[in-house]
Amino acid sequence: MKTNLFILLLMCLFINGCSQTTTTSAPKEKQETQPIPEEIQNAASMQTNTEEAQEDKTTETAINFEVQLDHLKINVSDQWSINQGLDSVSFILNEKPIGGIEGLGYSDSIEELVPNHNEIVKKIDLKNTNVKATEVLTKTDSLDGTSKEEVHVFLFINQKVVYDLHFDLNEVDKATILSLVETAIPL
Length: 187
Fold this sequence. Notes:
187 residues, three-stranded antiparallel β-sheet, 39% strand
């Protein structure tokens, strides 16, 4: 049995050694180049263009993971991790919290919905959304003298509940936030 394995091992080594010696290229003066047929060039070009288009499409459709809350469903980036709570979800990227969405009691007053110790910098009613939505830029000052800017988008659902979709502006750009808001659908 040991002899058979030894012979098999030697044969494998011999074959590998021989294959390495037979893969050398021919001298340049004997090499002939033939033009690549046009159909093959076109097919290769089409495949490359299709792959590039798929990469672009992947970038454009990053907002594709559905999160369902009690009164709302919304799509978020599949690159984010989520922690789901009671009618709330926090979003995490690279083990760092970047934002979240929370169900709040209903109120028509934005000032009552903004978290404590946040100063309203700007307020905009958003158009072309499936729910009434108001974007609010806030600033908070900490004891060490630094300030933090957040975007809160308040989503008003049938005078029952308001969802606060909020993000740290240093972590998520405004275009991504608005893309999320466009996917919000009341339940």
